[in-house]
Amino acid sequence: MPQETLHRIVGLVQQEPFLYSGTIMDNVRLFQEHISTEQVIWACKSVGAHHMIKRLKHGYDTRLSERGRGLSARERQLISFARIIVMQAGKVAEQGNHGELLEQGGIYADLIQHSRQVSV
Length: 120
Known about the structure:
This protein has helices spanning 3-9, 24-28, 37-47, 50-55, 73-81, 98-104, 107-119; strands at 22-23, 63-64, 85-88, 91-95. The strands form two sheets. A two-stranded antiparallel sheet has the order 1-2. Strands 3-4 form a two-stranded antiparallel sheet. By secondary structure, it is mostly helical. Helix 6 (98-104) crosses helix 7. It is 48% helix and 11% strand. 18% of the residues are buried.
């Protein structure tokens, strides 16, 4: 398989996601206040993080230290997965929900298209 093709169909999920000092709510919405609580909860439910978050004493208002100490690696990953944001070369390339990212026809849409082709 040519390397260019491989780069288009393979996504990277870091083993050690970066979490910021702040609440889980802050971390999911990356401190963008215009993102509603309902949107954050929907994103967390979509990636399977909601039940884990609800078990925490303060739920979405649980304060995290930088790097998310006190959470397991899996829990940190789930929180980072809920961020609807596409990174390329260490910079934000696209952002939006699933539908918005598909409409942009960019990196995310390409990854979805290629994953559908591979799974057929």
